[in-house]
Amino acid sequence: MPATQLVQLDDGLWTVAAPLKALGLAIGTRMTIVRLESGELWLHSPIRPTGAVRKAIDALGPVRYIVAPNLFHHLFAGEAAAAWPEAALYGPPGLAKKRKDLVFAGFLEPDKPGPWAPELEEIPLAGTLLRETMFLHPKSRTLITSDLAANCMHATDWFTRLYIKASRVGERFGLSLTLRACYRDKPRARASIEALLTKDFDRVIVAHGDVLERDGRAEVARAFDWLLKA
């Protein structure tokens, strides 16, 4: 799917997918866009804001917030901030040290909701190297994530296909062996997933692979069975 095509998933909720290579792997990526009640836009895990992408987003409303949700999904945060200079950039606290070129308006911190609350609820994913914050969009019962899991990853090149097979990503919602290795503090991570499973969501948006349109909570529980029963 070209990176110029916004897909509307629900009222006030869109995604746009884009090709992306990382370490030679064609894993793709996805940005999520939420229109808040004010009419302003919240961008999650920004992709490169090409002319067509920017035009399509600007047609939805003014961009107010740009969110880099973890320590890895920040590649185009600077370009997005330059494209929408009036927007406020947020990210995990550790990202400021990693990306000294970025100017943050604030950080994603537990027990300190961002200015988009209560329309978006922050759910920290603790105990991992990702330092990810997930977001619940109650209006559409959608969980917005980047690297919680992947879903039905597809690839045309042999190297990426080999990675998908070797890392056991598979053809359904789940964690690769690479992602599992990021869970260093399992008790804290387990508590995060248990807290997540108390939330009311059905759809799960991921950065890599397809959007999971239904049965999201059950699929998260199944995908994390290895952690929950550890």
Q: What's a concise summary of this model?
A:
This protein has 230 residues and is of the alpha/beta class. Helices cover 24% and strands 23% of the residues. It has helices at 51-58, 77-83, 95-98, 158-166, 177-181, 186-196, 216-223, 225-228; strands at residues 7-10, 13-18, 21-22, 25-26, 29-35, 41-44, 63-67, 88-91, 106-107, 121-125, 132-137, 142-144, 203-205.
Would you mind describing this structure in some detail?
This protein is an alpha/beta fold and 230 residues long. It has a single domain, classed as Ribonuclease Z/Hydroxyacylglutathione hydrolase-like (Metallo-beta-lactamase, Chain A, 4-Layer Sandwich), CATH 3.60.15.10. It is 24% helix and 23% strand. It has 8 helices and 13 strands. It has a 7-stranded mixed β-sheet, covered by helices on one side. It has a 4-stranded mixed β-sheet with strand order 10-11-12-13, covered by helices on one side. α2 (77-83) links the parallel β7 (63-67) and β8. It is globular. The model has no long low-confidence stretch (mean pLDDT 91).
How many beta strands in the DSSP annotation?
Answer: 13
* Low confidence ranges: none
Helix/strand order, N-terminal first:
EEEEEEHEHEHEEEEHHHEHH
Q: What's the number of structural domains?
A: 1
**Which class in CATH terms?**
Alpha Beta
* Overall body shape: globular
Count of separate DSSP helical elements? 8
What class, by secondary structure content? alpha/beta
Strand content: 15-25%
Distance between the termini: 38 Å
CATH architecture designation: 4-Layer Sandwich
Taking strands numbered 1, 2, ... along the chain, how are they ordered across the largest sheet?
A: 1-2-5-6-7-8-9
